[in-house]
Amino acid sequence: MPPAPAGIDVWSLAFGSVGVVFFVLLILVFFSLTSWTIIIWKVLELRRAKRSCDEFLAAFWQAKRLDQLYEEALAIEGNPIAEVFAAGYREAEQVLQARTKGGAEDTNVLTAELSGVESVERALRRAANHEISSLERLITFLATTASASPFIGLFGTVWGIMNSFRDIGTQGAAGLAVVAPGISEALIATALGLAAAIPAVIAYNHLQNRIKILADDIENFTADFLNLVGRHFMTM
């Protein structure tokens, strides 16, 4: 029986690449490793944030004194809703202090109440936008990896195939032994590009969904806190 043909060692071809193809492979490895680092970090971060937010919301609705809850919120790290609450509470305290000092000088009580609620709302919105932006930090790198990696890999493949045709012209032969190594090396770039892009796009969609859930929780909390502030101002 004739001996079985030796298989092509993919890793040897990858590490044995030179020139442009090797540079392309390095870029794709960088994209892949960085993406996986971001994926793991963001998954853990969002999981902790969601758990912490749920615990804070339960404490918020059970709290009898918001000033005590405010002190607790200042000590919490990585909790978007606690940060939003702290910003809103500080603004509400400043508004109440200003109204207390103003006293009888306020000629239009309703206007003052509406102005106070609007000030608290602006503070809440600013804090919410900042927290959502913080949650979305580095997510765009996954989108970049998902969109760019296949094209970078394709570029490496095209360049490698061009080199294979050049070798054919140089050696004057078009046998499989001449063509196969170069084409295999070139196709590794496409495979690595897809290997970097597929996890990135899946993780990007998953993380965006988790961030949307947290953003909805922040939005709902903002509305509830504004209702409490409005009722408090109206009863003063």
What's the short story on this structure?
By secondary structure, the protein is mostly helical.
Task: Describe the SSE topology.
Elements: H1 10-15, H2 19-62, H3 66-75, H4 80-102, H5 109-135, H6 139-171, H7 176-234
Notes on the structure:
There is one protein chain. With 236 residues, the chain is mainly α. The protein has one domain (11-234). It contains seven helices and no strands. The chain has helices at 10-15, 19-62, 66-75, 80-102, 109-135, 139-171, 176-234. The longest helix is centred in the last third of the chain and has 59 residues, at 176-234. The protein is rod-shaped and about 95 Å long. It starts with 9 loop residues before the first helix and ends with a helix. The model is unreliable at 1-6 (pLDDT under 50).
Q: Top keywords for this entry?
A:
single chain; 236 residues; mainly alpha; 7 helices; 0% strand; rod-shaped
Integer tally of domains:
1
By helix and strand content, what is the structural category? mainly alpha
- Unreliable runs: 1-6
On the 0-100 scale, what is the average pLDDT? 82
What's the tally of helices?
7
Query: Rounded to an integer, what's the Rg over CA atoms?
Result: 29 Å
Helix content: over 70%
What general form does the structure show? rod-shaped
Number of DSSP-assigned strands:
0
**What proportion strand?**
under 5%
**Terminal CA distance:** 98 Å
The largest pleated sheet is described as:
none
What string gives the helices and strands in order?
A: HHHHHHH
